[in-house]
Design a protein that fits this description.
By secondary structure, the protein is α/β, with parallel strands linked by helices. Helices cover 16% and strands 36% of the residues. It is built from two helices and eight strands; from the N terminus they run E-H-E-E-E-E-H-E-E-E. The termini are close together.
């Protein structure tokens, strides 16, 4: 299966979406595709890209969707799901994340089945997995 054929886009709600966007770009290497401004200083929708992955970010709001999800700080820092994003140069990516202040939960480890990976939290406590193992390749 071609990973481009059935994209899954993860969405996040941040208390400070502008700060999160800047940090995610610096720490993890995302680039801004588009940012739709919201009311006041809020972000209605931002699309960030890393390789062939996209995430969408918005400011927290009091609406029907946001009442369905909880911020990690509302559930004692826990997460119920986290993305795995394939990174070619995982060692450099890891060093950059550490330098930018990502909270490392599981340090960079090389896996028996190939590649390496690590798990960290961003500045608002969302959990991320990055690794060089690519399950699309045989």
């Amino acid at each position: 299966m071609d990973p481009q054929g059935a994209p899954i886009i993860i969405t996040y709600r941040y208390k400070d979406a502008r700060k999160a966007i800047e940090w995610l770009c610096r720490a993890f290497g995302f680039t801004e595709k588009v940012i739709h401004e919201g009311e006041g200083d809020s972000i209605a929708n931002a699309q960030l890209i890393l390789n062939n992955a996209m995430i969408m970010i918005a400011s927290e709001r009091d609406n029907e969707f946001d009442r369905l999800v909880k911020h990690p700080h509302e559930i004692e820092g826990y997460n119920t799901i986290s993305p795995y994003i394939i990174i070619e140069d995982i060692e450099q990516h890891y060093q950059n994340a550490v330098q930018e202040g990502a909270e490392i939960c599981l340090p960079l480890t090389m896996q028996d089945y190939g590649g390496g990976g690590y798990t960290c939290k961003d500045l608002e406590g969302y959990l991320w997995n990055f690794g060089s193992y690519d399950p699309w390749k045989e």
